[in-house]
Amino acid sequence: MEGIIFYIIALVTIVAALRVVMGRNAVHSALWLVLVFFCFGAFYVLLQAEFVAAIQVIVYAGAIMVLFLFVIMLLRVDRPEELPPKHRSQRVVGVLLGIALLIGVGVTVAVDLLPGKSGEKSIEALNTLSGGNTQALAEKLFTDYLLHFEATSALLLAAIVGAVILAKRKEEK
Amino acid sequence: MIPLSHYLGLSVILFTIGLLGVVIRRNAIVIFMCIELMLNAVNLSFVAIARSLSSLDGQVIVLLVMTVAAAEAAVGLAIIISIFRTKGTINVDEINLLKW
After folding, report:
1. Which residues, listed in sequence order, are joined to residue B91 by a DSSP beta bridge?
2. Whole-number average pLDDT of chain A
């Protein structure tokens, strides 16, 4: 059952991702990307990462995509663009790069070159032990990763200030 | 239970699609969306490996990546707006002020 769901969602994700790349209209690309983000949320649920799934839908499918659509409509680029690029070789190089990447990582996955020490308890056990995935993540985030957490708050502040200054209209002198 | 390699395979396929988009497309906003797609593909492999290794660290790192992605989206779109104001276009072929 889990397998069937995984493969169906995987197929939907790949098709939607291709539509993001191939679509000629920026708004259509953005809407297909929302579908991709929802599919990622489904994968996180399958992987017992419920909190990450919720954040995926709220932050990505919600906040970030609204920001994208807002900018697309603000800049009035929601009409089809001319797809043929100025440099034709770019497309060939892109496809070759993609194939090289697929082969490289595919070999790594196939021969199982991924090292790593396994934990003692499975994710399900860890989640039930703390009373839920959110609690388990919170314990981890506010003890082992406290410094990282504080660093992200500084990063967000810098991003807010930077975005406001960049998007502000220059005053006429 | 789906094996780890299937998740990693899916992740690398999506990452490649995102990479193709960055190289092929000329619209700066679409390029930006493809970068988000690549970030998400990496997040998927983080969570999949976290389950495979029975560790929550992968999930915490995904949360941090999402924060960085949100900050990146805000600043990046502000830069795109700023470019549009000065150049009147967001076609990356026409944004060539730094080209010698």
Report:
1. B27
2. 85
Q: Apex CA B12: angle with CA B7 and CA B14, to 5°?
A: 95
Nearest-angstrom CA–CA distance, A136 and B58: 12
Give chain B's mean pLDDT: 89
- With an 8 Å Cβ cutoff, are A106 and B47 in contact? no
What are residue B27's DSSP bridge partners?
B91
- How much is the pLDDT for A116? 67
**pLDDT classification of A56: cutoffs 50, 70, 90:** very high
Instruction: Flag whether pLDDT at B27 surpasses 80.
Output: yes
CA-to-CA distance for A169 and B72, rounded, in angstroms?
A: 20
What does the pLDDT read at residue A158? Answer: 95
B-proximal residues of A, 95-114, CB under 8 Å: 95, 97-98, 101-102, 105-106, 109-110, 112, 114
Amino acid, single-letter form, for residue A164: V
Contact A44, A56 (CB under 8 A): yes
Residues of B in contact with A43 (CB under 8 A): 7, 44, 47
pLDDT at A9: 95
Q: What's the pTM?
A: 0.89
HSE (side-chain half, CA atoms, 13 Å) at A155: 17
DSSP states along A131-150: TSHHHHHHHHHTTTTHHHHH
**B78 shares contact with chain A (CB less than 8 Å):** yes
Contact between A77 and B27 under an 8 Å Cβ cutoff? The reply is yes
Mean pLDDT of A24-45: 93
